[in-house]
Amino acid sequence: MSQKKYSTKLFYRYYLDWIHIYKDNAVRQVTLDKYYLVQRRLRELAPDLHMNELNRRNYQRILNLYAQNHEKTTTLDFHHHLKASLFDAVDDGLLKSDPTRRAIIKGCSPSEKKLKYLNLFDLQKLLRSLNLGDEINWDWFFLLISKTGLRFAEALALTPNDFDFEKQCINVNKSWNYKDKIGYFQPTKNESSNRSIMVDWKLMQQFQSLINSKEDEQLIFFNKDQRIYNSTLNQKLASYCKKVNIPVVSIHGLRHTHASLLLYEGVSIASVAKRLGHSNTTTTQETYIHIIKELENKDNDKILHHLSQLG
Fold it and tell me: Does a structural domain hold residue 32?
Protein backbone atom coordinates (compact mmCIF):
# COMPACT_ATOMS: atom_id res chain seq x y z
CA MET A 1 0.00 0.00 0.00
CA SER A 2 1.46 3.39 -0.98
CA GLN A 3 2.09 5.87 1.82
CA LYS A 4 -0.29 8.85 1.85
CA LYS A 5 1.35 12.09 0.71
CA TYR A 6 0.29 15.16 2.61
CA SER A 7 0.40 18.76 1.31
CA THR A 8 3.83 20.35 0.91
CA LYS A 9 2.44 23.83 0.17
CA LEU A 10 3.73 26.71 2.28
CA PHE A 11 1.41 27.25 5.24
CA TYR A 12 0.77 30.94 4.55
CA ARG A 13 -0.05 30.15 0.89
CA TYR A 14 -2.47 27.41 1.91
CA TYR A 15 -4.16 29.88 4.27
CA LEU A 16 -4.46 32.46 1.49
CA ASP A 17 -6.08 29.88 -0.80
CA TRP A 18 -8.43 28.91 2.02
CA ILE A 19 -9.53 32.55 2.41
CA HIS A 20 -10.23 32.77 -1.33
CA ILE A 21 -12.31 29.59 -1.30
CA TYR A 22 -14.29 30.00 1.92
CA LYS A 23 -14.31 33.68 2.88
CA ASP A 24 -14.22 35.88 -0.24
CA ASN A 25 -17.75 37.20 -0.92
CA ALA A 26 -19.03 35.21 2.05
CA VAL A 27 -18.30 37.60 4.94
CA ARG A 28 -18.42 41.35 5.40
CA GLN A 29 -15.45 43.34 4.15
CA VAL A 30 -14.35 44.33 7.64
CA THR A 31 -14.26 40.64 8.63
CA LEU A 32 -12.49 39.66 5.41
CA ASP A 33 -9.84 42.31 6.08
CA LYS A 34 -9.06 40.59 9.40
CA TYR A 35 -8.45 37.29 7.64
CA TYR A 36 -6.06 38.93 5.19
CA LEU A 37 -4.28 40.70 8.07
CA VAL A 38 -3.79 37.33 9.79
CA GLN A 39 -2.42 35.92 6.53
CA ARG A 40 0.15 38.70 6.26
CA ARG A 41 1.25 38.20 9.86
CA LEU A 42 1.48 34.44 9.27
CA ARG A 43 3.78 35.04 6.30
CA GLU A 44 6.03 37.22 8.47
CA LEU A 45 6.15 34.69 11.31
CA ALA A 46 6.52 31.48 9.28
CA PRO A 47 7.69 32.32 5.74
CA ASP A 48 9.29 28.91 5.12
CA LEU A 49 6.96 26.55 6.97
CA HIS A 50 5.37 23.92 4.73
CA MET A 51 2.12 22.13 5.51
CA ASN A 52 3.82 18.71 5.83
CA GLU A 53 6.10 20.26 8.49
CA LEU A 54 3.22 21.68 10.47
CA ASN A 55 2.76 19.98 13.85
CA ARG A 56 1.77 21.03 17.36
CA ARG A 57 5.28 22.20 18.20
CA ASN A 58 5.68 24.38 15.09
CA TYR A 59 2.18 25.80 15.44
CA GLN A 60 2.85 26.66 19.10
CA ARG A 61 6.04 28.46 18.03
CA ILE A 62 3.99 30.65 15.69
CA LEU A 63 1.58 31.52 18.49
CA ASN A 64 4.46 32.25 20.87
CA LEU A 65 6.10 34.61 18.39
CA TYR A 66 2.83 36.44 17.81
CA ALA A 67 2.22 36.66 21.57
CA GLN A 68 5.49 38.51 22.14
CA ASN A 69 3.93 41.74 20.85
CA HIS A 70 0.24 41.12 21.45
CA GLU A 71 -2.04 40.73 24.43
CA LYS A 72 -3.54 37.34 25.23
CA THR A 73 -6.99 38.18 23.84
CA THR A 74 -5.47 39.31 20.53
CA THR A 75 -3.37 36.16 20.32
CA LEU A 76 -6.50 34.09 20.94
CA ASP A 77 -8.24 35.86 18.07
CA PHE A 78 -5.23 35.17 15.80
CA HIS A 79 -5.37 31.49 16.80
CA HIS A 80 -9.10 31.23 16.07
CA HIS A 81 -8.64 32.63 12.57
CA LEU A 82 -5.97 30.04 11.77
CA LYS A 83 -7.64 27.12 13.52
CA ALA A 84 -10.69 27.05 11.22
CA SER A 85 -8.50 26.64 8.14
CA LEU A 86 -6.48 23.82 9.74
CA PHE A 87 -9.62 21.92 10.71
CA ASP A 88 -10.49 21.92 7.01
CA ALA A 89 -6.96 20.86 6.09
CA VAL A 90 -7.31 17.76 8.29
CA ASP A 91 -10.77 16.99 6.86
CA ASP A 92 -9.41 17.35 3.32
CA GLY A 93 -6.51 14.99 3.99
CA LEU A 94 -3.87 17.73 3.65
CA LEU A 95 -2.68 17.23 7.23
CA LYS A 96 -2.26 14.04 9.22
CA SER A 97 -3.51 15.52 12.48
CA ASP A 98 -4.75 18.79 13.96
CA PRO A 99 -1.73 20.93 15.00
CA THR A 100 -3.93 23.34 16.97
CA ARG A 101 -4.95 20.69 19.51
CA ARG A 102 -4.28 21.81 23.10
CA ALA A 103 -2.57 25.01 21.91
CA ILE A 104 -1.39 27.29 24.74
CA ILE A 105 -2.42 30.93 24.37
CA LYS A 106 0.08 33.43 25.76
CA GLY A 107 0.42 37.20 25.50
CA CYS A 108 2.31 40.24 26.69
CA SER A 109 1.10 42.29 29.64
CA PRO A 110 -2.08 44.20 28.78
CA SER A 111 -1.76 47.93 28.38
CA GLU A 112 -3.59 50.23 30.74
CA LYS A 113 -7.19 50.33 29.61
CA LYS A 114 -9.17 53.54 29.34
CA LEU A 115 -12.49 53.63 31.15
CA LYS A 116 -15.03 52.04 28.82
CA TYR A 117 -18.21 53.39 30.36
CA LEU A 118 -19.60 56.14 32.58
CA ASN A 119 -21.57 55.82 35.76
CA LEU A 120 -25.12 57.20 35.88
CA PHE A 121 -24.07 60.48 37.53
CA ASP A 122 -21.40 61.24 34.94
CA LEU A 123 -23.65 60.28 32.04
CA GLN A 124 -26.33 62.65 33.32
CA LYS A 125 -23.73 65.45 33.51
CA LEU A 126 -22.71 64.76 29.91
CA LEU A 127 -26.27 64.66 28.57
CA ARG A 128 -27.22 67.88 30.36
CA SER A 129 -24.32 69.64 28.64
CA LEU A 130 -25.38 68.67 25.10
CA ASN A 131 -26.72 71.27 22.70
CA LEU A 132 -30.07 69.66 21.88
CA GLY A 133 -31.74 72.32 19.77
CA ASP A 134 -34.57 72.20 17.26
CA GLU A 135 -32.34 70.94 14.46
CA ILE A 136 -30.56 67.62 14.19
CA ASN A 137 -26.85 67.66 15.10
CA TRP A 138 -24.19 65.29 16.45
CA ASP A 139 -25.22 66.02 20.02
CA TRP A 140 -28.51 64.29 19.24
CA PHE A 141 -26.43 61.41 17.89
CA PHE A 142 -24.63 61.09 21.25
CA LEU A 143 -27.95 61.16 23.12
CA LEU A 144 -29.45 58.51 20.87
CA ILE A 145 -26.57 56.05 21.36
CA SER A 146 -26.64 56.68 25.12
CA LYS A 147 -30.32 55.72 25.22
CA THR A 148 -30.27 52.82 22.75
CA GLY A 149 -26.81 51.22 22.82
CA LEU A 150 -26.64 51.33 19.01
CA ARG A 151 -23.34 50.61 17.29
CA PHE A 152 -21.72 53.62 15.62
CA ALA A 153 -22.38 52.32 12.07
CA GLU A 154 -25.97 51.37 12.97
CA ALA A 155 -26.77 54.86 14.24
CA LEU A 156 -25.21 56.45 11.15
CA ALA A 157 -27.49 54.37 8.90
CA LEU A 158 -30.76 55.49 10.52
CA THR A 159 -33.46 56.97 8.32
CA PRO A 160 -36.95 58.26 9.26
CA ASN A 161 -38.35 54.94 8.03
CA ASP A 162 -36.58 53.18 10.90
CA PHE A 163 -38.58 55.03 13.55
CA ASP A 164 -41.85 53.37 14.50
CA PHE A 165 -43.56 56.08 16.54
CA GLU A 166 -46.72 54.03 17.11
CA LYS A 167 -44.86 51.11 18.66
CA GLN A 168 -42.27 53.42 20.28
CA CYS A 169 -39.26 51.61 18.86
CA ILE A 170 -36.38 51.95 16.40
CA ASN A 171 -35.91 49.19 13.82
CA VAL A 172 -32.29 48.29 13.12
CA ASN A 173 -31.84 46.49 9.81
CA LYS A 174 -28.70 47.97 8.23
CA SER A 175 -25.50 49.84 8.97
CA TRP A 176 -23.40 52.45 7.18
CA ASN A 177 -19.98 51.67 5.75
CA TYR A 178 -18.21 54.86 6.75
CA LYS A 179 -14.70 53.47 6.24
CA ASP A 180 -14.82 53.70 2.44
CA LYS A 181 -14.35 57.05 0.71
CA ILE A 182 -17.84 56.67 -0.72
CA GLY A 183 -20.07 55.45 2.09
CA TYR A 184 -22.99 53.10 1.53
CA PHE A 185 -25.58 50.99 3.32
CA GLN A 186 -24.49 47.50 4.29
CA PRO A 187 -25.97 44.63 6.33
CA THR A 188 -25.75 44.69 10.10
CA LYS A 189 -22.89 42.91 11.86
CA ASN A 190 -24.83 39.65 12.11
CA GLU A 191 -28.37 38.34 11.81
CA SER A 192 -29.15 38.95 15.49
CA SER A 193 -28.21 42.60 15.01
CA ASN A 194 -31.46 43.03 13.05
CA ARG A 195 -33.69 44.04 15.92
CA SER A 196 -36.24 46.50 17.31
CA ILE A 197 -35.15 48.69 20.21
CA MET A 198 -37.77 50.13 22.56
CA VAL A 199 -37.12 53.73 23.58
CA ASP A 200 -38.79 56.18 25.93
CA TRP A 201 -41.69 58.32 24.71
CA LYS A 202 -39.78 61.57 25.26
CA LEU A 203 -36.97 60.60 22.88
CA MET A 204 -39.49 59.45 20.28
CA GLN A 205 -41.36 62.74 20.47
CA GLN A 206 -38.12 64.68 20.13
CA PHE A 207 -37.02 62.76 17.04
CA GLN A 208 -40.46 62.88 15.48
CA SER A 209 -40.16 66.66 15.51
CA LEU A 210 -36.54 66.61 14.31
CA ILE A 211 -37.03 64.34 11.29
CA ASN A 212 -40.56 65.16 10.12
CA SER A 213 -39.24 67.20 7.17
CA LYS A 214 -36.85 64.47 5.94
CA GLU A 215 -37.58 61.90 3.25
CA ASP A 216 -38.34 58.35 4.43
CA GLU A 217 -35.02 56.91 3.17
CA GLN A 218 -32.90 59.99 3.85
CA LEU A 219 -30.02 59.67 6.30
CA ILE A 220 -30.84 61.54 9.49
CA PHE A 221 -27.51 62.81 10.75
CA PHE A 222 -25.58 63.64 7.58
CA ASN A 223 -25.72 63.64 3.79
CA LYS A 224 -24.65 60.62 1.75
CA ASP A 225 -21.86 62.56 0.04
CA GLN A 226 -20.26 63.49 3.39
CA ARG A 227 -17.24 61.55 4.64
CA ILE A 228 -17.72 60.56 8.27
CA TYR A 229 -14.78 59.78 10.55
CA ASN A 230 -15.21 57.90 13.81
CA SER A 231 -12.12 59.65 15.19
CA THR A 232 -13.56 63.13 14.55
CA LEU A 233 -16.74 62.40 16.49
CA ASN A 234 -14.78 60.71 19.27
CA GLN A 235 -12.68 63.87 19.60
CA LYS A 236 -15.85 65.94 19.80
CA LEU A 237 -17.25 63.68 22.50
CA ALA A 238 -13.93 63.76 24.38
CA SER A 239 -14.02 67.57 24.43
CA TYR A 240 -17.51 67.44 25.97
CA CYS A 241 -16.33 65.00 28.66
CA LYS A 242 -13.39 67.22 29.55
CA LYS A 243 -15.61 70.29 29.66
CA VAL A 244 -17.85 68.79 32.36
CA ASN A 245 -14.91 67.12 34.14
CA ILE A 246 -15.90 63.47 33.69
CA PRO A 247 -13.83 60.52 32.41
CA VAL A 248 -13.31 60.56 28.65
CA VAL A 249 -15.15 57.82 26.79
CA SER A 250 -15.55 57.01 23.12
CA ILE A 251 -18.83 56.70 21.22
CA HIS A 252 -18.51 52.93 21.64
CA GLY A 253 -18.10 53.72 25.34
CA LEU A 254 -21.61 55.22 25.30
CA ARG A 255 -22.86 51.83 24.06
CA HIS A 256 -21.01 50.16 26.95
CA THR A 257 -22.48 52.75 29.32
CA HIS A 258 -26.00 51.97 28.13
CA ALA A 259 -25.54 48.22 28.66
CA SER A 260 -23.77 48.63 32.01
CA LEU A 261 -26.48 50.82 33.49
CA LEU A 262 -29.18 48.37 32.38
CA LEU A 263 -27.34 45.50 34.08
CA TYR A 264 -26.95 47.53 37.28
CA GLU A 265 -30.71 48.18 37.17
CA GLY A 266 -31.33 44.44 37.19
CA VAL A 267 -32.21 43.93 33.52
CA SER A 268 -31.44 40.34 32.53
CA ILE A 269 -28.37 39.44 30.49
CA ALA A 270 -30.63 37.93 27.82
CA SER A 271 -32.56 41.19 27.42
CA VAL A 272 -29.38 43.27 27.29
CA ALA A 273 -27.85 40.91 24.71
CA LYS A 274 -30.95 41.20 22.52
CA ARG A 275 -30.98 44.99 22.83
CA LEU A 276 -27.30 45.24 21.86
CA GLY A 277 -27.68 42.82 18.95
CA HIS A 278 -25.23 40.27 20.34
CA SER A 279 -25.39 36.88 18.64
CA ASN A 280 -25.52 35.13 22.04
CA THR A 281 -25.46 35.90 25.75
CA THR A 282 -21.90 34.57 26.02
CA THR A 283 -20.63 37.68 24.23
CA THR A 284 -22.52 39.88 26.68
CA GLN A 285 -21.23 37.93 29.68
CA GLU A 286 -17.62 38.14 28.49
CA THR A 287 -17.87 41.87 27.75
CA TYR A 288 -19.47 42.79 31.07
CA ILE A 289 -17.99 40.11 33.32
CA HIS A 290 -16.77 42.69 35.85
CA ILE A 291 -20.30 44.03 36.31
CA ILE A 292 -21.85 40.57 36.44
CA LYS A 293 -19.41 39.51 39.17
CA GLU A 294 -20.21 42.64 41.15
CA LEU A 295 -23.94 41.95 40.84
CA GLU A 296 -23.39 38.32 41.86
CA ASN A 297 -21.73 39.50 45.07
CA LYS A 298 -24.76 41.67 45.81
CA ASP A 299 -27.06 38.73 45.05
CA ASN A 300 -25.09 36.54 47.45
CA ASP A 301 -25.64 39.10 50.20
CA LYS A 302 -29.37 39.05 49.44
CA ILE A 303 -29.42 35.24 49.46
CA LEU A 304 -27.64 35.03 52.82
CA HIS A 305 -29.93 37.68 54.29
CA HIS A 306 -32.99 35.77 53.06
CA LEU A 307 -31.69 32.45 54.44
CA SER A 308 -30.98 34.00 57.81
CA GLN A 309 -34.67 34.96 58.08
CA LEU A 310 -35.80 31.34 57.70
CA GLY A 311 -36.39 29.40 60.90
Answer: yes
Give domain status of residue 302, yes or no.
no
Q: What is the mean pLDDT of the chain?
A: 92
Looking at the structure of the chain, the number of domains it has is 2
Task: Determine the structural domain holding residue 40 and report its residue range.
Answer: 11-91
Domain end point (choices 76, 91, 106): 91
Residue after which a domain boundary falls, among 71, 91, 111: 91
Residues 82 and 159 occupy one common structural domain? no
Residues 245 and 191 placed together within one structural domain of the fold: yes
pTM of the model: 0.70
Strand order in the sheet with 169-172: 163-164, 169-172, 195-198
| 73-116 residue pLDDT tens | 899 999 999 999 999 999 999 999 999 999 999 998 876 555 58
Q: What percent of the chain has pLDDT over 70?
A: 96
